[in-house]
Amino acid sequence: MSKRWMKTIMVAGTLMACALPQAYAQMTQGSIHGHIQNAAGIAVTAGDVKLTTDAMPSDTTKYKYDLPVDQNGNYKSDAIDPGTYYAVFFQEGKTIDFLPGLKIVAKQDLAADFDMTRKEFIDKLTPDEKKTLEEYKAKVGATTAENSKIANANTLLQQARDDMKKFDYATAETLMQQAVSAKPDEGILWFTLGDAQSGEKKYDDAITSYQKAIDLNDASKKPKMDLDAASYNNLGQAQANAGKTADAVAAYEAAAKAEPAQAGMYYNNEAAVFFNHGDMDAALAAADKAIAADPTRPDPYFVRGQSLIQKATVDKDGKIIAPPGCVDAYQKYLELAPDGPHAKDATDILTSLGETIHNSYKAGSKKK
Fold first, then answer.
1. 139-143, 227-231, 310-314: segment of lowest average pLDDT
2. What are the DSSP E strand ranges found in the chain?
3. How many CA atoms lie within 13 A of 340 on its CB side?
C-alpha cells in the first residue's frame, strides 16, 4: 500500500474519532423544561433557573447549568447530564424559589414547574408580603371583572347594531338595556340605546338616553366631541319627532358647536327634520344656517326653496309670484346636484314659474 493511501486512511480515521463524543453525549443526556408563575398566578418573564448537584446550595455554590426564563415564563434545556439536581429560580440576583430532588434521566424529559401559588410557598411569606399579595389579587380580580363587563357590553353593542340594520329595534333595545345595566358609565351604550328607542318611536325614552350619553361624555376625563355631536344630533331629531321644536333647535346648535367642521351637516339634518314635519319656518331657518356653514351642500338650497314657495302669491293675471330668494335657491340646487333626488321637482317648479333653467339638467342625467 502506498504511503499516500495510508495517509488518507489515517485522516479519515481521525475525523471519525472526533465525531464520536458528540453522538455519545446526545445519547446519554436528558432534558428539562418548566413554567414559572408567581404567587398571584402570573407568569414570571425574567430571571434564571440554575441547577446544581449540591444537596443544599449555599452562597459558594457553583451552578452547573444556568437556564434563562423567556418572555412567556418558560425555561428549558435539552442537554443535561443525568443526576439528581437542586433547581433554584433567581431574579435580579436573589433566590426566589427552589425545587429539590429533580432526577434527570438519559433520553428522558423532566417537567419541573415553579408554581409559587402553592401553599408551602405562601406560608413562608412575611405578613406584609401576604398583605401585599392579597391586595394585588383583589386589584387583579376587580380588573378582570371589569374587563369581562366591557367585553360583554361590546358583544351586546355589536348585536344591537346588527339588529337595527334589520330594523329589529325592539330586540336592539332589549340588548342595550342589558348593556347599560352592566356598564352604566359608558356614553356610547346610552347613545345606541337611544337609537333603538328612536327606531321604536319611543321618543321621550330616546331623549333621556341621548342626554345620558352627553352627560357621561362631558363628565369623562377625555370627552369625545364626535360622540357629543352625534348625541346632540340624534337628540334633536328625537325632540323634533316629539314636537319639541325649541329643544330640537338648541340640540342641533349644540351638535354644530361640538364639531364645527361638520356644522353644515348638522344644520342640514335639522332642516330636513323640520321640513319632513311640515314646520317650514323652522326648516327655512335651519337651511339658511346650513348654507352659511357649508355652501357646497345642495339639499339645504332645496329645503330653502320649498320653504319659501309656500309663501308664493298669485297676481291679477293668475301668475305665480315666488318670494325673494326662492328661484335662486332652486337654481343653486340644480347647479350643485343636476341629477340629485330633488332635481325633477326643482325643475318642474321653476318651469311652472316661467323661469329658465340655468343648467343642462335632464331627467336621468348623470353629473360628470
1. 139-143
2. 30-37, 48-52, 65-68, 74-80, 83-91, 94-104, 109-111, 114-115, 313-314, 320-321
3. 20
Q: Can you tell me which residue has the cell 357629543?
A: 228
* pLDDT of the residue at 24: 54
Q: Which residues contact 125 (CB under 8 A, 6 or more apart)?
A: 39, 133
Fold of 29-122: Immunoglobulin-like (2.60.40)
d(C-alpha 86, C-alpha 49), whole Å: 10
Reported as a pLDDT band with limits 50, 70 and 90, residue 27 is confident
Q: What does DSSP assign to residue 2?
A: -
Residue pointed to by grid coordinates 329658465: 356
Tell me the domain boundaries of the chain. 29-122, 136-297, 304-368
Name the H helices within 279-322.
Answer: 280-293, 299-309
Q: Evaluate whether 82 touches 107 at the Cβ level (below 8 Å).
A: no
Which pLDDT score, from 0 to 100, does residue 23 have? 54
| Mean of all residue pLDDT scores within the chain | 88
CA distances from 35 to 29, 43, 66, 105 (A): 21, 8, 15, 20
CATH class of 136-297: mainly alpha
Are 122 and 110 spatial neighbours (Cβ–Cβ below 8 Å)? Answer: no
- Percentage of the chain lying above the pLDDT 70 cut: 90
Q: Write down how long the chain is.
A: 368
Torsion of CA 143, 145, 150, 154, to 10 degrees: 140
Chain centroid to CA 249? 32
Name the one residue in this structure whose C-alpha cell is 443525568.
82
Query: pLDDT (tens digit, 9 = 90+) per residue, 45-70?
Result: 999 999 999 988 888 899 999 999 99
Least confident window among 104-113, 130-139, 241-250, 340-349: 130-139
The predicted model scores a pTM of 0.60
Q: In whole angstroms, give the CA distance from residue 142 to residue 204.
A: 36
Helix (H) or strand (E) holding 183: none
Q: Torsion over CA of 86, 91, 94 and 98, rounded to 10 degrees?
A: -20
